[in-house]
Amino acid sequence: MTLDQQTTIPIGIDELVARTAQQKKDGCRLVQIGCTQVGDDFEINYVFDKDFVLTNLRITVKQDAVVPSVSSVYFGAFVYENEIHDLYGITVAGINIDFKGHFYRTTVKNPFTVTITKEDTSCQNK
């Protein structure tokens, strides 16, 4: 794949469900939903494919944002949305199968937002 086969489109939260529905109407499949922390913000990328061409719809939110679920459009999105909730602490409203924070068992709440400052030596060879 080359860069010209992939487009990233920044959108607002209020556009998310409608733009996702348009992707489905256009015959695209949902490839993944990924989240990453960038400074104090979180980028959530909704990746769609049609004929080996990827389209990324990107929203940028704060951790206290409420993101609407797209699981009413793509049923399987509930997996990604529960993951984003559990690992990043972002609320996703209206998930078709909502695990309510129990999709993953973690020892640290929202572990992908935690900065480790102390070196963990428990796995070093002795």
Task: Report the CATH superfamily.
Answer: NADH:ubiquinone oxidoreductase Nqo5 subunit
Q: What is the succession of H and E elements?
A: EHEEEEHE
Q: What is the count of distinct domains?
A: 1
What percentage of amino acids are in beta strands?
Answer: 25-35%
Tell me the name of the CATH class: Alpha Beta
Mean pLDDT: 86
Structural class: alpha/beta
* Count of alpha and pi helical runs: 2
> Span between N and C termini?
44 Å
Question: Could you explain how this protein is built, in words?
Answer:
This protein has 126 residues and is of the alpha/beta class. It has one domain: NADH:ubiquinone oxidoreductase Nqo5 subunit (Beta Polymerase, domain 2). The chain contains two helices and six strands, in the order βαββββαβ. The strands form two sheets. It has a four-stranded mixed β-sheet, covered by helices on one side. A two-stranded parallel ribbon has the order 5-6. The longest helix is centred in the middle third of the chain and has 12 residues, at 77-88. The chain is globular.
